[in-house]
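User: Hi! Is it possible to get a structure for several chains at once, not just one? Here's what I have:
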Amino acid sequence: MIRRAGPPLLLLAAAVGLWQLVVVLADVPDYLFPAPSAIARSLAHDSRLLASATAVTVREIVLGFLLAAAFALAIGVLLHFSAALRRALLPLLVLSQTIPTVLLAPVLAILLGYGIEPKLVVVAIVCFFPIVVGTVDGLRSADPELVRMMRTLHGGRLAIFRRVELPGALPAIFSGARVAATYAAVGAVFGEWAGSSAGLGFVILQAQPALDTARIFAAVLILCALALALYALVTLAERALVPWQREAANA
Amino acid sequence: MAQSTIEARPGETPATEAGIAAAGLVRVLGGRRVLDGLDLVVPAGGRAGIVGRSGAGKSTLLSLVAGLAEPDGGTVAVGGDATAAGRLARCALMPQRDCLLPWRTALDNACLALENRGLPRSEAHRQVAPLFARLGLQGAERLRPARLSGGMRQRVAFIRTLCAGKETLLLDEPFGALDAITRAELQEWLAAALDAEPRTVLLVTHDVEEALLLCDRVHVLAAGRVTLELDVDVRRDGPRREIVTSAPFVELRERALEAIE
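Assistant: Yes, the chains can be modeled jointly so their relative placement is included. Here is the combined structure:
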């Protein structure tokens, strides 16, 4: 772990050091481009505000992500079982990805108001696609020889799904979920920008006219940390649910 | 004979009179007649070996017998039933690759067929675990396939096939992926296992010696039909080295090899 994290951390520290040096030497004002030290000051100074905003955004991210995962799994399984539905719906799902979420967010705010609902929907929409694709691909990639073998062992359609296809699809489903985890924070911010009175996206919106650039950077830093944390959680869940994969890699 | 613990229906012997019967079997794949008028009879409880080159149609034959595919001509019946569903209900297939599910332990893999039939896992364990002990796999029950050697994996795959409780076992190059030493070891193990759990067996292999060691009748498959049938009437007790170098065995092997070429 330490050996893997070492090189990127070292590079990051060097970049932050260089950033601080350039800003201080060139005497760049904080409102144009704050030094890392100014961001750290903002984190400490605004900690109350940032903490309550973070709590709001975390709720949106986690609930939206879970919503997306539940729908994506259900629809992925449905598409797996119905070839007709797959042919009809999958191209439309791909097409729907060309609609920019930034534009969808204001419409959702009009539709659903200024509470948590439109944010959940935005987060769920950006997270849905990678998980549903992972589910459909994972379920379809089952080894046909395993399926043949199962059929000669009294394996009906449901038994093949439960005992072969679904466990075999878990790695692909988790790959999709990991990608989705990195989108969730951005989705929450878009949702908040379209209309909100709390959250990290709202903090950024408010700090901008005040030229409090350091606070914007502080909020962005927290958003990155949230995305990373969700990614780590998904990875941990995968390790717990797909233990045979690590075993196979170590064999 | 030891009473099987995993019979499909208690009180009924796994083997019925009919065994496997194929007549004039034709199968066309990609415009090629892979099977071209194949005739084959395996009596119930018999052990038939099918030998031939790669691409001679051996695996195609197994798919047809298993009821996983329908012939383009001719008929094939297992236990007197010529429908695909009927054949599927009577055959268990052991593929060349062990096809163990990596997320299940060895014992759970062997329990697949029983679980598929609706038995709770604990009950399936109770029925299959004694077989692990009897067939020399004790200690491997809780290991996942990634921790098992190639030979152990094939043994688990065979027990899984056995536990389907079917009267007919279709073995598709079961030891094809193993090294020579493990292979010889497993051939002896399989012979003993089949003595303990008798079934009608159709063994497909490209290894003539393997077929002669394990089967009582060997069919040479060439150009989509059976071109030679050999009754294996040689003594097969004693050390393997003596069996395979005995004059009658060598003669059978030479005749089979000649027919393959």
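The mean pLDDT of chain A is 92. Residues 42 and 215 of chain A are 6 Å apart (CA to CA).

User: Great, thank you!
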